[in-house]
Structures are given as structure tokens and as C-alpha cells.
């Protein structure tokens, strides 16, 4: 932030202002984007790590090439977690039924913000866990390919390590689903009930 | 010395594979080409070189042996070295910076040897083609440059020209520059005198020392796992060089009081576990007993020294060093995402070729009692695996 | 044989020859025996050296293998070094029973040892061992070369001597003996011939004497007259020419 104080009332006072003034719909959509995007980055990263080793190791030991595709599939799974989460979250974003420029009086702002922040963080939890999971599966998969090329009995053992790495992504998606479960975008005002 | 600064790092756990994953995995795949315990067992049971060749056709050497009619230990060695060089160059073409520079560094050691060979051959007036034949294929550089080394006339001026026009162009030129500079400061006369007067092994040892230091600096600049593992390998190599130089200088001119500080001390690399305190001690020792005392504070070398000093069995200090080298080089393969395995691969293959020559020589010379006295690579029966 | 005139003189000459031949034969025989003893000595030490060398040579070459294992290939470095020999082989002469035998011995030229620092960064000790072993081997080789050459020269000399002994024994001496026997035979023959002739002459003379006696008995000569006959009548003066000295 620049040190010069902005005098105008429309001026943002800082990043907090940006965060608080962003629309919950925006948050929710960013949640979807981060959830999917980071998961795919994780998956792609993992496939890169595994793939380069797999291709290299398969030159001297061609037998590993189809067996070790499972590492690539494990990486791919993290992208699928992201896609699942993205679909769940997208389904939860509902446009308001009001047609006016402003939200109606008695709009459920609590639920509104809760849904926005909740879905954003659900997306982030899935994205960040899956990026970690994707990379760790990738590293384990890379070692798996190299180890398998040397000694095929090691394949299953390292695969278990990979499964554990892959489970990290599942933790993310479980928590993400629980997080997003409670998030319900209000579609109409509930002010009538307020007056009672 | 101007150690080339790596243009980018090696990458860590998560990014190494982006640039070097393929080459590393390729190398790891090649690891399975090492002769196994069973292969060694079969080889040592052979009665004739025919049997050896027959057994080798069941290993990774099958293809290269099929095309040649090699039937002597020297021929086996030639074929095996050619195979190694072929693999190395294949690997080298798959690499990108900074791994390619790292691999070039591995070849510099052999280049130094080749340049020394050519220079000395030129002094003796030997035929260039004959000399090129003897050069180690891993240390080959531009042939026109190699060919022009022995063409210079055998005079002070000729050597001046040689150095200024040819040697500076070779990859190992900077080491020559450093050597000539250091020698010029302590000796009178130009580069000709230095090249003609100093024994070839001493020039070579000096150049190897500069190369080691340069390699070490480069490795340190690379950082990460590479610095950690390769640094350790190079430190140990520097130490064993220093110990070997000291031990082998006994009984030669190098051990004379005047030479001890002026020449021998200059051959000790400027890094390693022994540096600086141990090196300072080493430069004063005059016999084996003192050497043993100087090594006492360093448990890892004291152990190796005790093998030599006790003299029991037929294990010599060279065997002990080889054994430890193999152990350390194998460890480089225990960890991923670093460059040290490339160096380890070349060195372990060299050891394997040495073993192969040893076994076939033993069979040829009917020395069955000695046939087991080599250091196996990736053996399940290695002392450090028991 | 036939060309030798069987005379007393020749017999004498050949007797001398036989004596000389037998003397020579005896001497040569002695020499041959001496050579044979020496020959056996040499054969024995050659066998010993050779069997020792088989071990030493394989040991030396094996130590080279060991050194190459420890220090890498250093052959080229050795061959690039200065090529002045540190050890040379000198030739001397030994005399056995008049046979000159060549003897080789090594001597150091005093050229400085180069490549001292070979294997500086590894394997130096092994290279020193190789150097020692090959120096030993070289010494043995020189010894063997010396023995072998002597052996051959001796062999040649022995052959010549034996041939001479055999020639004397089987050809010269029998020939001389034959000649002597022939001469003796011939001389005996001559003697016998003389004897018969003498006998014959004697017989004739006796017959004549008998006939004379008979005639004298038939012709009685007055006693005392028998000596009257002119004794010179029987000699014709013309028969004898004056002996002029």
C-alpha cells in the first residue's frame, strides 16, 4: 500500500478491503477455479516427475512401462479429485432469483458470505492438498519406476508409499466436501421470517 | 580459477525431474547392466578365456562382444571401455545444463591424461596416429586440436606457441595456465622448461589437483543434493589422493626435504576432510610411521591405514581405497535427484572393467588363488552389506 | 695300404704313428669326459633356472596385472619415458678344458631411474614391486642366456671332440694297426721267402758237394795231389776288377 492516504471514500483501504468487498459469488467461483486448477497443476507436476523417470527407466527395462502407468494414474487421480470438487462446488453456486440490481431487503447475508467463504476455502483445501498429493505421488512414482527397473519386487512396496501419498488428496477432498456441505447460497430473501 | 558458474541450479526434490529426470532414469536403468554376483561367480570359475567370453555373452556385454573377436584381457578391456564411452556419450547427449557441464567435468580427468600423453609423446618424437590410438576415448576432444599438440617444434618458442594457441583452447587449458603460472613463480625459465623438466606424473598430479578443486567448486555452486553427495565423494577422493601421493613419494625425489614443501605440498588438493589441518601434517611426514601418526586424528583414514600398516592378508592400501570408493559410489545410487550418480556410474564401470581384466588375467596366467581379490560392484556379499 | 711299402722303416714310422694316435685318443677322451661333466652341470643348472624362471616370470607378469589393477594402464607412460637403458649385458669368456665359453653378465649403466613417481595418486607401491620383480627376472634371464649359450657352445665342442675320439678310435688307429699288421705280414713273408731260397741254395750246394765228392771218389787222385790244383785256377782274374776306392 502506498503511504499516501487516499482521501476519497471509494478508495480501498488495503487488501482487507478487497477481500471483504469481493462478492461471495466471486469467492465461490474462485474456490472452484483454485480447487480444479491447483489439483490439475499437482497432477500435471506429478505426471511430469513420474513420466520423465518412467520414460528414462523404460529404455533399459521396457517391462516397467505399462506397470508403472499406475503411478501416472495415481497422479491423474488428484486431477479427478479436483474435477469432482469443482463439479460439486459449481452445483452449489446458485444465482439469486431476484432480478433487480440490488439484493432484496432481508437477504440472508450471513448465509451468503458463509457460502462464499466456505466454498472458496473448500476449493483451496482440495487444491492445496491435491497439489501436495500430486507432487508427492510424482516423486514416489518416479522412484517407483527407477526401483522397478532394478528390482521388480520393489514395485508393490513403493506402490504402497504411493497410495499413502495419494491418500493425502483424499483427505483434502473429504474435508472439502464437508466444508462445502454447509454452504448454501440463498436464492431469495428471508426477511419475512425476520419480522416475526 | 574461473570455475564456470552453473547457469541454473539442479533443482530439488520437486523440480529436478523437470530437466534431468529422463537422463537420471536412463542412468538408473543402466545400473542394471553391472555384472551381478552370479556373473562374477561364473566368470571366476572359468578355465579359459573362451569360457570367459561365453559367460560374458550372457551379460550386458553380449552385443559388443558379438561384434568383436576379442580374446585377450586387453581386448576385453578395450571393448568394455568403448562400451562405457558409448553409453556415456549417449547419456551426455540426453542432458541439459548444468548436468551437461557436470558430465564434461567427468571427462576432464581423462583429457588431462590424454594431453599429457600427447605432450610427452611429442617430446619423444612419436607418431601422432600412434599416440591418438593410446588416448583414453573418454578424454577425446576436437581431433584437430589433439592433432596439433605434437606438431609444435621441440623448442622453448615452440612450446610457447603450443601453449598460447592450442592448450588454451582445450577444455583443460585453464589448469595448464594455473600450473604454468605456479611453476613459473618458483622456477626460472619459460613453459618449455617446465614441461620438459618436470616429471609427467607430477604435472599430471598437479593438473588433477586443479581439476578436483575446480570440480568441487562447481559442485558446491550447484548446491542441493548434488553438493551434498558429490561434495562428499570429491572430498574423499581429494583425501585419498593426498594420502596416496604422500605414501608413494617415499623413496623418490619428492620426499627430499627441499621438495617436500615446494613440490609435494603443492600436489595436495585444497579441500577435503584432511584440509587444512591434516594436509599441514601430511606435508611434513617423511616415512610411513609418521604418515600413520598424521592420519590418526581421522578415524576413517586411520582404519584404511591400519589395513596397510598391519600388512596382514594380501590387502594393500590400494585395495582398501578401492573398496571404500566402491562403497561410497554405491551410496550415490541410494539417493535420487542429484548428479553424483553420473560420476559414480563412470567410476563404478571403471571398477567393473578393472575387475573383468583382473579375472581374465588371472585365468590367463593360471593364478586361481588370487582370482577373488577384486572389489565387486553392487555385490550382495560386500563387507558393508553384511 | 698297398701304397705303403712294407719296409722296416715304414714299420718303425707307423709304430710311432700308432703311439701318437693312442696318446691323442687318450687325451681327447679325457677332454670329452671333462666336457661331459661340465655339460651335465650346465644342463642341470639350466633346468633349475628354467623351472625357477617359470615361477618368477608368472609372478612378475602377475604383479604387473596387480599394478595395472591398482594404478591403471601405465605402459604408455613407461614407453614415453627416456629410453636409456639402466642395465646392459656384458660378454666375458670362460675356459673349460680348452673350450672358450661366452659368459654374459649385467652391469648398470648408471643412467638415472626415471618414472620414479609413477602411480603417484595410486598404485605406486605396486609399481615398485613390479619393478623389483622384473629386475630379478631380467637377472635370471641373463643368467639363463649365459648358460644356454655356453650349453650350446659346449655341445658343439663336445661333438667335435667326440667325433675326433671316435675317428681316432674307429678309423685312424685301426688303419695304422692294419698297416702295421700288413707290414709285419709282408716282412714275415719276405723272411720266409729268403729262408726257402737259402734252403734251396743250401740243398743245391749240398748236392753239388755230393756230386763232387762222388766224382772225386771215382777219379782217384794221387794223394797230396789234391791240393796241387791251382787254387787260383778257379778264380778268373778277369772276373774281378780292381776295386778302386
UniProtKB/TrEMBL annotation, chain A:
Membrane topology, record value: Multi-pass membrane protein
Primary residence: membrane
Pfam families registered for this protein in UniProt: ATP-synt_C
Location(s) in or outside the cell: Membrane
Occurrences of domain V-ATPase proteolipid subunit C-like (ranges): 30-89, 120-178
Cellular-component GO terms for this entry: proton-transporting V-type ATPase, V0 domain
GO MF annotation: an example: proton-transporting ATPase activity, rotational mechanism
InterPro entries: ATPase_proteolipid_c-like_dom, ATPase_proteolipid_csu, F/V-ATP_Csub_sf
Residue stretches spanning the membrane: 25-48, 69-91, 111-133, 154-178
Keywords: Hydrogen ion transport, Ion transport, Membrane, Transmembrane, Transmembrane helix, Transport
Origin superkingdom: Eukaryota
SUPFAM superfamilies listed in its UniProt record: F1F0 ATP synthase subunit C
Entry similarity comment: Belongs to the V-ATPase proteolipid subunit family.
Record's protein name: V-ATPase proteolipid subunit C-like domain-containing protein
From TrEMBL, chain B:
Transmembrane segment boundaries: none
A GO cellular-component term linked to this record: proton-transporting V-type ATPase, V0 domain
Molecular function GO labels: proton-transporting ATPase activity, rotational mechanism
InterPro entries given in the database record: ATPase_csu/dsu_sf, ATPase_V0-cplx_csu/dsu, ATPase_V0-cplx_dsu, V-type_ATPase_csu/dsu, V-type_ATPase_csu/dsu_dom_3
Keywords: Hydrogen ion transport, Ion transport, Transport
Assembly with partners or alone: V-ATPase is a heteromultimeric enzyme made up of two complexes: the ATP-hydrolytic V1 complex and the proton translocation V0 complex.
Family affiliation: Belongs to the V-ATPase V0D/AC39 subunit family.
Job of this protein: Subunit of the V0 complex of vacuolar(H+)-ATPase (V-ATPase), a multisubunit enzyme composed of a peripheral complex (V1) that hydrolyzes ATP and a membrane integral complex (V0) that translocates protons. V-ATPase is responsible for acidifying and maintaining the pH of intracellular compartments and in some cell types, is targeted to the plasma membrane, where it is responsible for acidifying the extracellular environment.
Name of the molecule in the record: V-type proton ATPase subunit
Protein species of origin: Cylindrotheca closterium
Automatic annotation (TrEMBL), chain C:
Keywords attached to this entry: Ion transport, Transport
UniProt cross-references to InterPro entries, sorted A to Z: V_ATPase_D
Transcription regulation recorded as keyword: no
MF GO annotations: proton-transporting ATPase activity, rotational mechanism
Annotated NCBIfam families: V_ATPase_subD
Family statement drawn from the similarity comment of this UniProt entry: Belongs to the V-ATPase D subunit family.
Family matches, as PANTHER family: V-TYPE ATP SYNTHASE SUBUNIT D
Name the UniProt record assigns to this protein: V-type proton ATPase subunit D
Species name: Cylindrotheca closterium
Amino acid at each position: 500500500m502506498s503511504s499516501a492516504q487516499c482521501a476519497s471514500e471509494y478508495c480501498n483501504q488495503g487488501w482487507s478491503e478487497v477481500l471483504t468487498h469481493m462478492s461471495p459469488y466471486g469467492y465461490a467461483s474462485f474456490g472452484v477455479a483454485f480447487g480444479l486448477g491447483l489439483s490439475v497443476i499437482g497432477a500435471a507436476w506429478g505426471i511430469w516427475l513420474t513420466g520423465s523417470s518412467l520414460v528414462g527407466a523404460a529404455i533399459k527395462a521396457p517391462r516397467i512401462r505399462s506397470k508403472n502407468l499406475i503411478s501416472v494414474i495415481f497422479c491423474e487421480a488428484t486431477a479427478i479429485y479436483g474435477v469432482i470438487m469443482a463439479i460439486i462446488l459449481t452445483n452449489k453456486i446458485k444465482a439469486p432469483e431476484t432480478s433487480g440490481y440490488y439484493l432484496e431487503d432481508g437477504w440472508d447475508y450471513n448465509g451468503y458470505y458463509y457460502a462464499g467463504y466456505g466454498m472458496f476455502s473448500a476449493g483451496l483445501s482440495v487444491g492445496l492438498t491435491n497439489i501436495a498429493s500430486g507432487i508427492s505421488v510424482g516423486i514416489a512414482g518416479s522412484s517407483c519406476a527407477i526401483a522397478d527397473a532394478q528390482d521388480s519386487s520393489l514395485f508393490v512396496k513403493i506402490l504402497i508409499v504411493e497410495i499413502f501419498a495419494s491418500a493425502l488428496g483424499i483427505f483434502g477432498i473429504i474435508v472439502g466436501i464437508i466444508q462445502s456441505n454447509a454452504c448454501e447460497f440463498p436464492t431469495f430473501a428471508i426477511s419475512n421470517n425476520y419480522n416475526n | 580459477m574461473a570455475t564456470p558458474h552453473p547457469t541454473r541450479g539442479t533443482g530439488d526434490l520437486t523440480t529436478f525431474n523437470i530437466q534431468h529426470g529422463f537422463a537420471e532414469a536412463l542412468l538408473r536403468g543402466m545400473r542394471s547392466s553391472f555384472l551381478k554376483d552370479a556373473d562374477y561367480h561364473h566368470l571366476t570359475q572359468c578355465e579359459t578365456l573362451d569360457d570367459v567370453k561365453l559367460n560374458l555373452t550372457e551379460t550386458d556385454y553380449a552385443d559388443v562382444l558379438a561384434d568383436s573377436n576379442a580374446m585377450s584381457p586387453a581386448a576385453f578391456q578395450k571393448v568394455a571401455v568403448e562400451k562405457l564411452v558409448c553409453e556415456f556419450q549417449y547419456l551426455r547427449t540426453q542432458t541439459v545444463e548444468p548436468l551437461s557441464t557436470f558430465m564434461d567435468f567427468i571427462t576432464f580427468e581423462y583429457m588431462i591424461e590424454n594431453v599429457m600423453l600427447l605432450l610427452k609423446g611429442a617430446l619423444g618424437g612419436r607418431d601422432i596416429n600412434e599416440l591418438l590410438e593410446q588416448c583414453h576415448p573418454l578424454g577425446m576432444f576436437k581431433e584437430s586440436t589433439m592433432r596439433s599438440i605434437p606438431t609444435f617444434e621441440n623448442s622453448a618458442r615452440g612450446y610457447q606457441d603450443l601453449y598460447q594457441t592450442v592448450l588454451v583452447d582445450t577444455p583443460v587449458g585453464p589448469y595448464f595456465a594455473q600450473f604454468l603460472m605456479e611453476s613459473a613463480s618458483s622456477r626460472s625459465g619459460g613453459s618449455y622448461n617446465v614441461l620438459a623438466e618436470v616429471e609427467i606424473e607430477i604435472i599430471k598430479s598437479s593438473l588433477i589437483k586443479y581439476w578436483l578443486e575446480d570440480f568441487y567448486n562447481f559442485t558446491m555452486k550447484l548446491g542441493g543434493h548434488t553438493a551434498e553427495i558429490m561434495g562428499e565423494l570429491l572430498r574423499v577422493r581429494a583425501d585419498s589422493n593426498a594420502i596416496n601421493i604422500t605414501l608413494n613419494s617415499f623413496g623418490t625425489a619428492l620426499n627430499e626435504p627441499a621438495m617436500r614443501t615446494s613440490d609435494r605440498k603443492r600436489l595436495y588438493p585444497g579441500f577435503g576432510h584432511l584440509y587444512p589441518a591434516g594436509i599441514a601434517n601430511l606435508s611434513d611426514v617423511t616415512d610411513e610411521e609418521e604418515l600413520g601418526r598424521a592420519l590418526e586424528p581421522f578415524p576413517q583414514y586411520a582404519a584404511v591405514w591400519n589395513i596397510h600398516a598391519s600388512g596382514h592378508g594380501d590387502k594393500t592400501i590400494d585395495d582398501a581405497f578401492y573398496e571404500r570408493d566402491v562403497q561410497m559410489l554405491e551410496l550415490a545410487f541410494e539417493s535420487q535427484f542429484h548428479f553424483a550418480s553420473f560420476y559414480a556410474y563412470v567410476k563404478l564401470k571403471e571398477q567393473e572393467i578393472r575387475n573383468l581384466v583382473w579375472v581374465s588375467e588371472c585365468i590367463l596366467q593360471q593364478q586361481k588363488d588370487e582370482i577373488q581379490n577384486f572389489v565387486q560392484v553392487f555385490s550382495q556379499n560386500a563387507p558393508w552389506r553384511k | 695300404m698297398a701304397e705303403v711299402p712294407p719296409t722296416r722303416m715304414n714299420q718303425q714310422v707307423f709304430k710311432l704313428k700308432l703311439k701318437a694316435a693312442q696318446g691323442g685318443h687318450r687325451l681327447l677322451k679325457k677332454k670329452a669326459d671333462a666336457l661331459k661333466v661340465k655339460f651335465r652341470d650346465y644342463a642341470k643348472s639350466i633346468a633349475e633356472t628354467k623351472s625357477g624362471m617359470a615361477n618368477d616370470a608368472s609372478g612378475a607378469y602377475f604383479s604387473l596385472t596387480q599394478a595395472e589393477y591398482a594404478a591403471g594402464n601405465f605402459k604408455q607412460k613407461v614407453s614415453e619415458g627416456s629410453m636409456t637403458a639402466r642395465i646392459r649385458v656384458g660378454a666375458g669368456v670362460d675356459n673349460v678344458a680348452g673350450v672358450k665359453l661366452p659368459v654374459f653378465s649385467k652391469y648398470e649403466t648408471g643412467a638415472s631411474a626415471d618414472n620414479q613417481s609413477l602411480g603417484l595418486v595410486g598404485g605406486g607401491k605396486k609399481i615398485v614391486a613390479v619393478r623389483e620383480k622384473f629386475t630379478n627376472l631380467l637377472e635370471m634371464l641373463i643368467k639363463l642366456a649365459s648358460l644356454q649359450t655356453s650349453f650350446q657352445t659346449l655341445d658343439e665342442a663336445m661333438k667335435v671332440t667326440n667325433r675326433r675320439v671316435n675317428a681316432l678310435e674307429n678309423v685312424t688307429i685301426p688303419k695304422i694297426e692294419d698297416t702295421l699288421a700288413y707290414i709285419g705280414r709282408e716282412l714275415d713273408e719276405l723272411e720266409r721267402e729268403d729262408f726257402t731260397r737259402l734252403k734251396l741254395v743250401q740243398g743245391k750246394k749240398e748236392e753239388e758237394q755230393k756230386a763232387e765228392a762222388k766224382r772225386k771218389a771215382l777219379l782217384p787222385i794221387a794223394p797230396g795231389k789234391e791240393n796241387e790244383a791251382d787254387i787260383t785256377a778257379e778264380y778268373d782274374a778277369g772276373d774281378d776288377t780292381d776295386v778302386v776306392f
